[in-house]
What we know:
Largest sheet: none
Order of helices and strands: HHHHHHHH
Radius of gyration: 18 Å
Structural class: mainly alpha
Number of helices: 8
Distance between the termini: 42 Å
Shape: flat
Number of strands: 0
Helix content: over 70%
Amino acid sequence: MTLHGAGVAAGRNPGRRLLRGGDPAGLLYGAIVSATALAAVSLSTSEAVRVAIATGAVLVIYWMADLYVHALAMRFEGDSRGLLRRLGSSATRKSGVLMGGLPSIAVYVGVYAVTRNPTVAAFSALVCAIGILTIAGYLGARHAGDPRRAAMLEASGAGMLGVVVLFAKSLLH
């Protein structure tokens, strides 16, 4: 079904909050980038602050690249504004990358503060990312009008990417 599927037509729109920011893809990219960066960085150091800062830096670099790509694409759509104006416009629409990546970093820092165990903190952050991907998959399917069963299958597929990252981290650790 299309974006205006049965879920929307019937007045039920479980994906509305996800779409409110206008960048659901950015939320997912942020969750994926944050999880993979966190998994990679946490392999090379057990210093929690270093892991959180490096993951945050990767997330910000990815966000800046996303802004630039969006601003450049605007030129091909006929936007004649200068680069700084297009970047500013992009920044207002592309915050989803940051919003999608911050929960995993926050979970890492919070779990580490409680357990003082960087491995437990890293795995908890990856589980958070899996949750974000799974929920987004479900909400996207429901928003498109899929019935609950089909939405659950979609959610399972979306969450599997996070499971692959978690499995890869456990193999490398």
